[in-house]
Amino acid sequence: MIRQDSNRIDPKRRNAIDHKKKQFASPIYKEHDYSCRLNLYELPPTAEITLEQFEQWAIDRLRILAELEACSFRNRTPTETAAHMTPFLHKYLPLSSNTSCSAASRDGKIRLERQKDHYSHFILRLAFSSTEDLRRRFARVESALFKLRFQTDDAKERQMFVESLNFEWEVVSEEEKLQLGVDLLNATPGLKRQEVEDGGWFKVNFETVAELVESRRVYLRAGKAYVPVREQMSMVLAEFGARLDKALGMTARALPRLDEDDRLTPILNHLSKNFSTPDSTLSDSDTGLPGAFINANSIDNLSQHFPLCMRNLHMTLRKNSHLKHFGRLQYTLFLKGLGLSMEDCLMFWRQSFKLITDDTFNKEYRYNVRHAYGDVGGDAIRRGRGYSPFSCQKILTEHPPGSGESHGCPYRHFSIDNLNGLLQATGVTDRDVLKGIKEDVEKKRFHIACNRVFEWAHRGNIRRVKEDGTWGAAELDTIVHPNTYFKRSYLLASGQKAGSAGSQGDMMEM
After folding, report:
1. What residues form DSSP beta bridges with 170?
2. DSSP class per residue in 87-149
3. For residues 119 and 38, is the Cβ–Cβ distance under 8 A?
4. pLDDT digits (tens, 9 = 90+) for 447-458
5. Which pairing describes strands 219-221 and 170-171: parallel, antiparallel, or unpaired?
6. What would the pLDDT profile of 138-181 be if each residue is shown by its tens digit?
7. CA distance to 55, 247, 286, 483, 506, per residue, from 502 (Å)
8. 3-state secondary structure of 151
9. Is 402 helix (H, G, I), strand (E, B) or coil?
10. Which of 336, 353, 329, 327 is nearest to 299 (CA)?
11. What single DSSP character describes residue 201?
């Protein structure tokens, strides 16, 4: 008779623990220590955050990525881009080094900054993985942000970060280095013989450092690129891009599972739409102009400062003495954002609709103006003081104009010929500017085209305020709201300081 071992498990029985203990057990994750300022974003975050943090952190990072992409579209040099982006990074996505803070504050301030950077990257990765175009654009601007941070990182911390990655780079031996010494020296301009002999070298597949191969800064042999330590950044960037591309593909395959969570899907969808043009709202500080008297009779004179969308509406109104519903709504809310009172707005529309009687105006149009200002309508409308002025993103994506309508964005909804005609009618005649606008429109960079016109029209004033230091990069950021366009144009023309201009809203509209 065979004696059974009491510790032996019967293979026909399940050796499962209590199902309640398994079902309701709390998950245990390894806590991120964030020892380095830089991050390759390989491990997803696991700690809990609030929905408000989820939304706001993603919005702040989106501001940075949109501004960084705008710098690329405007062909700014790396030095100009770094100078332009520094105040935005400090405001929306600060990332301090270990040496910049004391040990006491390191666990608090630095950890929170790096946690926000970590989470916001993965949130936007979810938002921008749905299509190939979004994945490509997201990878491009994230790589640009990583490069900017890598260049400005502390040298010791940067080296510690690279060493922590454990990249599979083959180190060139001393024997091989001596054997190829002359070739290495000839293939790397600017490198002295002593640096070739004493410095470290890595051997990688040439495809991973295409940028260095293109600029002829490395030695190629048998499909391998011999890279000096000083060109380490290119290898790190190539590794960052390759890993991010792979991760975005995996995220795209996992996206269908998110449909079950009705809290996150609307936020992610809105973020992906805002990647074309960041959305913004207008705060109370942005309405009105210090020292300006705005009434129904001053709109014609102020229209020289209007963006093209509103100038087109104003010119159409003066030509036809009428605008259709969405044109009236878009223009009314814009005038409301200028600080025009409801009484003056009613007077403006009545004077503009000069082909109809008072009775017809009161019956068919007066109520709409009062409703936009929140004077009539439901409780929610009145409490919210009516509707907010439309942002560029809202104008671009909602209610495209039909036949006989004049609202919308001319850069998106006009043909190239009609757009050129409108631009020339408003004084934009420079051939290079018109050529740049055509390229922007063809690549669907509509807000960049609008900013290009603004910078050309105000080139003298912008140069002046930069030279005297009264306006900084933050006050000259990319315009994403028609009312911001008007206010910035007016202040530049009148010589007022940037402090009067306000910001484009501290919160993006969700």
Report:
1. 203
2. HHHHHHS----GGGS-HHHIIIIIHHHHHHHHHHHHHHHHHT-SSHHHHHHHHHHHHHHHHHH
3. no
4. 899 999 999 999
5. unpaired
6. 999 999 999 999 888 877 787 788 777 777 777 778 888 878 87
7. 23, 39, 6, 11, 10
8. helix
9. coil
10. 336
11. E
